Amino acid sequence: MRMSQCFWILVAAGLLSSGCGLFPEGRGSDSEPAYRMQLADSLEREGLFQGAARQYTTVAEQFPESSYYPSAVRRAALMYSISPYSARNDSAAYRWYIAYLSLPLKKPERENVRVTVEFLHRILLLHAQIAQIYTAADSLTVLTKRHSASLNADSRRMQELELQLQLARDELRKIKEIDLRLSKSRVR
What we know:
This protein has helices spanning 3-17, 31-45, 49-62, 69-82, 90-101, 107-187. It is mostly helical and 188 residues long. The protein has a domain at 3-104: Serine Threonine Protein Phosphatase 5, Tetratricopeptide repeat. Helix 2 packs antiparallel against helix 3, helix 3 runs antiparallel to helix 4 and helix 5 runs antiparallel to helix 6 (107-187).
């Protein structure tokens, strides 16, 4: 597909998502969900998974009574789960797979989706645990920096006190020498 075709697909997607309808028949017609499904399929073929996911989601949310609903739900879940990592949305994929499980599915497909849902649930739990670990690590880093600064200050203070102690010892030694001289001079 050439760049100009991609441009027009994205323009149409933008118009549709902003509420500018291209279909005079109204929302109940199967022509808009059919068009959106075709647009989503084109975006998917081009590797534009986020755009495809948005189109499939729109069909699923705005046309739940259409014949495209089951496919839109399944494809939305898939697009959210296969997007590149930076654009991936596991919680959206999980939500759409749960919606797909509520549809009448054949047993093997239901089992596959159930396993996928379980894996996504575990992934979401791991993401939450990782976030907690990062939060704890950040807190520990702050505490470490505070303790390090405190230890450095204590170390400097200890060096100052050791220096004062050494000076006091030197003074005490001098005083003892003077006292010793004075006592010897008195004895004579």
